[in-house]
Amino acid sequence: MSDTVTLTSAADGFQFTALHAQPEGQRKGGVVVVQEIFGLDQYVQADVARWAALGFEVLAPSIFDRAEPGFVAEHDPKGFQTGVSYVQKVGIDAMLSDIQACIDDLAARGPVFAVGYCLGGSLVWLSAGRLRGLAAGSAYYGSMIAANAELALTAPVIVHLGRKDAHIAADEVKARVEAAHPDVPVYIYEASGHGFNNDGRPDSDLADAELARARTLALFVANGAA
Asked: Using CA atoms, how far apart are residues 147 and 33, in angstroms rounded to an integer?
């Protein structure tokens, strides 16, 4: 079961909401789930439940609350355009400060990990270099990763890309990341396109999604998850 909590960003004192779930069974650590541009939709909710079932306490910040509290959009052109406008309105720094608040909240109870998708994948990559207290991160199909490939990382991170992604050139991202960080695994999933962690979406391949989730869990276990 999940609930909604209110957290405060240390950067500007802004209060934002986050979807929260307690771990099932023995607690292994905390996970910050970072949304796509569509808000805390059914796919984010499913991911929160998935990580809680694996034994993690989860926070999924509503990173557009400064623009529209509780924003959720359909995966259609209108939802996409609104999400893009909110990225520009809120700004990367503010979204990262909300992620930092989630990390700080969870850190008192054990190691903290992050996983993010699309916009969230880019934010997890940036978090691994710019934020404190992150044990490891898993970044899915983030469009800003290539441009920030040379970012100095302070936490282990892995990258997941879909071969059929029409928005992101997987080979280019892989080449740029590996040139800057030869030790960072970049996985390309041949049967999948953008958003493949969203079960049931047109670009989703369940086998690819499950493999990426297994790799993410293994990363977290290797970096302190009990």
From this structure: 22
Strands 29-34 and 112-117: parallel
* Total count of residues recorded for the chain: 226
What domains can be seen in the chain, in order of their start residue? Answer: 2-222 (3.40.50.1820)
| pTM > 0.90 | yes
User: pLDDT for 66-84, tens place per residue?
Assistant: 999 999 999 999 999 999 9
SS3 60: strand
> 42, 73 in Cβ contact below 8 A?
no
- What phi, psi does 114 have (nearest 5°)? -140, 145
Which tens digits make up the pLDDT trace of 120-165? 999 999 999 999 999 999 999 999 999 999 999 999 999 999 999 9
